[in-house]
Amino acid sequence: MHPYIVMAPLTGARTEELRALTWDHAFLKGRSDADPPQPPHIAVWQPGSVASKPAWHPDRMDADSLTPVHLDKVMDGLAMNSALPAPMVRRLFAWRRGGGKVARRPDLTEDMLAEIIAIDDHWLLHSLALNDRLPDRFRIRLAAHRDKAVRSALVIRAATAPREMLEQLIDDADPQVREYLAQGHHTPPDLRARLAADSDPAIRAALAKHWTQAPEAIRRILLTDPEAKVRAAACSTYFAHGPHPIPPSDLLPTLLADAVTRAGAVIHAVLDADTLQQLAGDPDSEVRAELARHPDLPPSVRDLLAVDPALSVRVKVFARPDTPEHVRAKIHTSVHELSRSMAAPSPDADAATVLQWCQDVAARTELRILRLQWVTADPLPHIDSPYVSFRVSAAVSEALPAKAVAQLLDDEEEIVRLTMARTAPHLVDPATAENIERRYRRRDKFTFWWDKEEVLTFPSEALRRFATDPEPRLRSFAPRDPNLPSELAERLASDPEDRVRRAVAPHRNLPLPSLFRLLTDSSERVAEAAGASPFLPVERMEWLLTRAGL
Question: Which of helix, strand or coil describes residue 85?
Fold first, then answer.
């Protein structure tokens, strides 16, 4: 019996196309078991394969005549391929089925830039405006373009932009362009200050939210703006950047009297008896929650807020350094019990009721994700805390002894382990690193960042061992070894998991037949990665461009 048994062959038009393929005799030279090629990523059983999963074998088909399933994505990859010759770069200017990625290349010559602008295609120009390497004279030229999306993109990438371009856009007719300028910390202060008098309240609010360290004169203008949404953004409990601004003391009485700025002003208020009574009885739970954070809160009021009807208020008391441990434990228990048992609001409930219900339901999650600076400053007493947020806050500290680091690296909670590993990757030995990666399961949205970062490193011996590991995540690490043997790279290119095939696609030791096959992969991300491989021969690049009609 042949060692490859087809379990689920493709059917229909796709099969007919595959039947028409010409078998590459040169590729099979010397083989005695040459059979007709099998389609990519059909389920094929390979004895002894990784994790005993179905896999197609890279030596089983000829990709020379097969047009990529995701040609658009292959073109996107090719557009950013560092080895793409200049004449082929120019040919991609005519590609209209992608997002104009070729215009983001860092190696575009001035002649190429002029040609892209002359073509005047929306996506090409939008990508060009996002190109960090765009020379000043071209930015200034695009700043007068009729397409507001192009002008907005210029502002988004304004870190290296000339002042002349920003001066040209500060009075732009489109509000979106001006809003991006209000948000951008690369906008010169004198130009940014002009937006405090913008006719659009949304732009003034964006300025208040994002320019947290604006001169006091500008913040006074925004704090006293006639529009409530602007004042609320200028005196808020949340800003886009830190540190949060402190309102001028003479404005505090006015800000506390204003319903839209009261919550943001509470933390800065002087808590005399009248102010305490007013704030503790405020109908807005956000005001009471901010009062629960006040550093000068009397114990009697703190204990009152510990049993507040709004669970979001109790969470703030939980996070205080002066909260007695028995009170903290009661809050933790009550928040978990009550947040699970709360009935959803009725369909005709007002917006405030719905918002409060959402905050209460989310309160138990907030208990987990708190980041407590006072715990980070003195972490050792909290590495054995029963509260996840306390252990995570301790793991942020860079002053922990090795024994404490080891304990947190082996914590039962994933978010604690990952936080400690990111804080002290130099203290993570290979065995512990492998344990952390092997246990990683992306259990909630608060650990997804781990999937995007290469925090931990492994020696080449471990990476090669990972190439045949049952765990797909670890197999995807194997291509990090720049000297990965070609036979292992070839095996990974036929892995049943697309994340593994994507990882190996740009590897320098991947045999060309396998790389060609990945161009026809069923996964868009794999196909794009293959198109971006700098080891793709020029002849194959030419073939792809021809297939795309370029």
Answer: coil
